[in-house]
Amino acid sequence: MSDLDPLDPLQIAEEWRTQGRSVAIATVIDTWGSAPRAAGSHLVIDENGNFEGSVSGGCVEGAVIAEAQEVIGSGEPKMLEFGVADETAWRVGLSCGGTIRVYVERLG
């Protein structure tokens, strides 16, 4: 039986790393309006697109996962911003309002 908390993406990221997986972490830096996750929320992603955690309750996860896979490959961190005024708002699902900034970096 594992001692991992299935709800703790940071523990899961560490476990994935010990398994030899390449991992990125996405962290909510700040939000405004109706963003459903608080600053400090995490989403961890491996090179195959497996993920645990959440940065937006489903609104931007797909876009963040795609960007995280690029970060894993390049090693270069990215600051992502999504919002109603952003041209990606309708594509990623923030049409309800608000903005969210997410920092994505490779672990290890």
From TrEMBL:
Pfam families: XdhC_CoxI
Domain XdhC- CoxI: 16-83
Domain of life: Bacteria
Name of this protein: XdhC/CoxI family protein
